[in-house]
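Good morning N.,

You mentioned wanting to compare the apo and holo forms, so I went ahead and generated the holo version with (2E)-2-methylbut-2-enedioic acid. This is what I fed in:
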Amino acid sequence: MAIVWPGLLVQAADNLAEFHRDRGLSCVACHDEGPPLSDDNLSLENRNCSVCHGSLETVSVEIGEREIDPHLSHLPGEPACTTCHATHSPSVPYCSACHSFEFNLPFAGTWERMEASIDELQQQSAAHDSAINNPPRDTVDVIVIGSGGAGLSAAVAAADASARVIVVEKEPVIGGNSKLAAGGLNAAETRQQAALGIEDSLALMTADTINGGKDKNDPVLVQVLVSESAGSVDWLTSMGADMSDVGRMGGASVDRTHRPAGGLAVGKHIVQVLYDRASQLDVDLRVNTRAVEILEDQSGAVRGLLVQGKYTGLYWIQAPTVVVAAGGFGKNNDLVASFDEKLRGFAATNQPGATGDGLNVATRAGAGTLDMQFIQAHPTYSPVGGVLVTEAVRGNGAILVNEAGRRFVNELTTRDVAAAAILEQAGDHAYLIFDESVRRSLQQIEGYVELGAVDEQLTLSDLADSLGMDATVLTATVERYNGFVAAGTDQEFSRQDMARPIAEEAFYAIEVTPAIHHTMGGLRINSQTQVLSGDGESIRGLFAAGEVTGGVHGANRLGGNAVSDIVTFGRRAGQRAANYAGVN
Ligand code: FAD
Ligand code: MEZ
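and this is what came out, ligand included:
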């Protein structure tokens, strides 16, 4: 029987530890008798939470009366209750780093990111020097920085090749931005497309990608992305992933965005699949563990990584290879604005750890960068709830209207164009308008409803009233659009794909505005995922994949191409690193 103690807030204790003690529990209810904390994952302590309180699913059922229940949201991997529920100090609602809903967390403090910069950590003389001069705490073949899709793909591929692998993740939960990925993964000439009768080609995906990237992409990297995309889908499905639903994203000529049936979010699903496989292969995954410095020998080849464990402090891991899969820097507004001043003060769709310090670790080891000025805003971020509204809502049939109730752009154009068009409208915002059939087609919409972001009304006229729009204008806009759907041609904005009319009661609106979403620039790599220095030489033993790299997407990434990128290049990096380490 699970115990959740719903009356926690009215208790006299100051924190969860006191609260437990007041109920007669001693230290060993949570901790081992040995060292005070088990490891940086707090594996034992988290397991002990579940022993009394049950699994996340059980807890979720117990507190089902609450409007917002974060226990089942983007939390792939090992349960990490201590992410939010601290014991001897105030608890921190980690979700509030992104979302804006009120949340009733017992004994809660405020979530804040407080961490030293990588520069400070590398200079911190006494602790730093003693950590490096001590023997390594572990020796493996491959160290991966980052537990997102690129990092987990690299870890699985390397471990599949018999490498011993450690993954370090600085956040308390795994998955990075990857666990938030919504709309899907782009791939051409897949079995799933064939089953649905969709005709696509590698040449078409290449042309769309380079067109979207304004011809700034590295063509060699695009060739890898495209030619291996169907293989990446097969690789994921061979591990149990479901990629059977295929939809359309902006800038694509055909339906090629793969996701689980029913329009479920792609990211949480594939992170879970990769995590399960990594666990089977005994990959050692350490959260709360930040990469601080890539260590090189006198010849400049990688010899290991200095890390900082949140609880265990600075130590180093010996390995001949490091794969940098540390993601982008969309959540670091100062860094973003240093490359693109227009984006200063913008909200971001990214996870809290997308600060760019993994990138910094690599550049301090001599890695070169490119395209840092190319930073993408996603057109449809909902300020209510603080959540990205997937492009799949438009792909499945929604339109965008302004405050006057009028369309103003081809909703499925590339993101740079759609975001710029929204910023030209009054109030720098717009509304996604859709109907019941779109809601039914995409389960992710239920999440936006739960976050309070969706206005639901029985008629279009009621919806217009609720939004403060002229009902005759909104109704005329939708009728005109439905006429284009019936005729198969959008005479106003040349939208190519109009999945369905907006006609089935009820009708919905979500207010949206652009937010920082993807950093296209990053580490310079070659097609073998080797990291290159500023002068183009490869750094021996250093590999990189995913959003931390630059060149794949050029000036503007197409929706769905990042998940494709991280699986394809992550897997490649893991294989190449294992090979370099001499394990196969
Ligand atoms: P991440 O998944 O971000 O992982 C990097 C990890 O490295 C993070 O966990 C980070 O904390 C960790 N890290 C950073 N520095 C350090 C350090 N010093 N030490 C240890 N760990 C470190 N793309 C698509 O193609 N399709 C989609 O549907 C889609 N939807 C998206 C929805 C949202 C809300 C967001 C934010 C992005 C979306 N994207 C989508 C983009 C895509 O998800 C990302 O580009 C991609 O997941 C990045 O994967 P990654 O593995 O490179 O990085
Ligand atoms: O590729 C993306 O970033 C994407 C598809 C996001 C989304 O709107 O779902």
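DSSP finds 20 helices and 21 strands in the chain.

Happy to go through it together on a call whenever suits you.

Best,
F.
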